[in-house]
């Protein structure tokens, strides 16, 4: 009586399961959502700008953290100038809060 080892079966079926099914779908998906990501970055950046300006007048720690988070999100999603502006204003608000 001969017993089959797993190695024998894997040699027999080697190469049958080496196919990629998702490569074509991912390329289309990336191009489709890049415009949506830019619009989201602008929207979050504008909300962060409002929060960072408001942080000069009330709740500087909470609104400053929201501004920094929104700025970093905007930078990573494509709105680099707006994100840098929001992050800079929030950091200046932090500095003023800790100096006074």
What does this entry look like structurally?
The chain is mainly α and 100 residues long. It has a domain at 35-100. It is 77% helix and 0% strand. The chain has four helices and no strands. The protein has helices at 6-12, 23-54, 60-77, 80-99. The longest helix has 32 residues, at 23-54. The chain is elongated and about 75 Å long.
Q: What is the H/E order?
A: HHHH
Shape: elongated
Which residues form runs of ≥5 with pLDDT under 50?
Answer: none
Largest sheet: none
Please state the structural category: mainly alpha
Secondary structure layout plus pairing:
Blueprint: H1 6-12, H2 23-54, H3 60-77, H4 80-99
Helix pairs in contact: 2-3, 2-4, 3-4
Q: Which key terms come to mind for this protein?
A:
77% helix, elongated, 100 residues, single chain, mainly alpha
Quick synopsis:
By secondary structure, this protein is mainly alpha-helical. It has four helices and no strands. Helix 2 (23-54) runs antiparallel to helix 3 (60-77).
């Amino acid at each position: 009586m001969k017993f089959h080892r797993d190695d024998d079966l894997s040699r027999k079926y080697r190469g049958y399961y080496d196919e990629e099914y998702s490569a074509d779908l991912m390329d289309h998906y990336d191009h489709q959502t890049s415009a949506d990501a830019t619009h989201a970055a602008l929207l979050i950046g504008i909300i962060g700008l409002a929060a960072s300006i408001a942080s000069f007048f009330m709740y500087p720690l909470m609104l400053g953290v929201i501004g920094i988070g929104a700025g970093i999100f905007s930078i990573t999603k494509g709105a680099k100038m707006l994100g840098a502006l929001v992050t800079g204003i929030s950091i200046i608000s932090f500095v003023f809060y800790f100096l006074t």
